[in-house]
Amino acid sequence: MPDKQVIVIGAGVGGLVTAIQLAARGLQVRVLERAEAPGGKMREVAVGPHRIDAGPTVFTMRWIFEDIFEAAGARLDEHLELEPLSIIARHAWSEQERLDLHADHERSVEAIGDFAGAAEARGYRAFCEQARTIYTTLDPTFIRASRPSLMGLMGRCGLSGLGNLRGVRPYDSLWDMLGTYFKDERLRQLFGRYSTYCGSSPFMAPATLMLIAHVEQEGVWSVVGGMHRVAQALARLAEGLGATIEYGRDVTGIITRSGGVRGVSLADGEQIAADSVVVNADPAALTSGRLGADVCRALPPLAPERRSLSALTWCLSAETEGFPLARHNVFFGRDYASEFKDVFAQGRLPRDGTVYVCAQDRGTDGNGAPDGPERLFLLLNAPPRGDRHDFDAVEIEQCEQRVFSRLEHCGLRVRRDPERMVMTTPVEFEQRFPATGGALYGQATHGWKASFSRPASRTKIPGLYLAGGSTHPGAGIPMAAMSGRLAAEALLADRRST
Ligand SMILES: Cc1cc2nc3c(=O)[nH]c(=O)nc-3n(C[C@H](O)[C@H](O)[C@H](O)COP(=O)(O)OP(=O)(O)OC[C@H]3O[C@@H](n4cnc5c(N)ncnc54)[C@H](O)[C@@H]3O)c2cc1C
Fold first, then answer.
1. What gap in Å lies between CA 194 and CA 192, rounded to an integer?
2. Taking residues 105-111, what's their average pLDDT?
């Protein structure tokens, strides 16, 4: 049995990027994926004759992918067609209250001025400035660093950087900080929602997450053909470099000997030898013992109470009327605090939740509404309790009623047909991403220490590494890709040193 090979468990973004990096350096890489397609959360769902993106829909930080393709001797634009969006998102609170954020900063300033007044528009300018400062402080020192350490961050910032460190606002909550820029609750809601990009509550997440506003301002793209194409392109690139990807392969254990990794065992009983294993499954699968007792202490325990958000999602093909959908649309509930209290404190579906709608046939400027049914993806935040609560039909039906009433309150009527609708609950997310309870972004970023306690690439077991959105530097496609790169770098450095 070849034992010099690297096994990657999972063909999510992080796993695929690790495979690309290692295969490009000539290592023998075998990716084992339990699903039938690459991408993990970046999946698509069949609804009648249509394919609908059922995971990520917002593509940012394209330069990370340009770097990954370039380092592998390829070009991103030869593998994927990306179109920049001119409307980043359309937000609604009622039929009369709508606000677009634009790729063009000045247009957003103007729109906010028209929506909420000149003082709020000035607040927005100051907010964007601060978001940029936070991003530029953290990008070289934290996001690209292999370990999420506070000391490391301070060291890399240098003495003069200590001021910068306070400037990244780790000790203020995002919600409180937004109150210093905006008096209008709706704008606090709009920008507070960025914390949900890493599955967290704006009331508990550090104000540091303002940096996401800057990331979106640097560009949001739509992927021609759907987001799932990103996963397919990464998988093709990995295979082109010599990695193999095997689907329908469920890894049930990681084998260790003399304290180091020796291979993996699969559900069908096969054992495969390897001297390095990269886990792209959620790290909770390790700590919960799902991948064997040998490796459950490979990293500190991950408390279920600290899980990030799960979601209830609907993929549907339906006719719509009454609201000019853009590609990305957010329909806010009135009481943001109650939404997060329901989900995080009460562990229940929100009674007045915010609904995200991706209208996947709409163009980059929101034009191009199709005649007849269109492809929609709806998302509602949900508690990560898919392993302890069954979310029964009555509970789901009531929630669905509330979701579609929220849309109607803002003017959007959706003629839905249960035959052309596929729903995913936290229970199904738990089945797809074992030991998570359906949490989609690892541990929640609540409190200033959260970012520093995310699992890093290296574990306590030699030869065992982690990659993915639940590890450092964080959730989201670009961050998961970055983690894949960090895992490959750690593995290569360790091989060189031994
Ligand atoms: C509904 C939704 C919306 C989102 N929206 C956005 C967005 O708009 N923009 C954005 O940037 N991010 C978004 N995200 C987050 C983003 O999708 C994730 O952070 C990212 O895709 C995670 O990648 P990953 O590398 O962690 O792998 P994952 O996607 O978690 O994949 C892990 C893979 O490992 C496999 N696996 C697990 N266990 C085993 C095993 N034992 N054996 C074999 N294989 C196994 C799984 O089948 C899976 O394919 C969203 C996520 C969801 C779910």
1. 5
2. 97
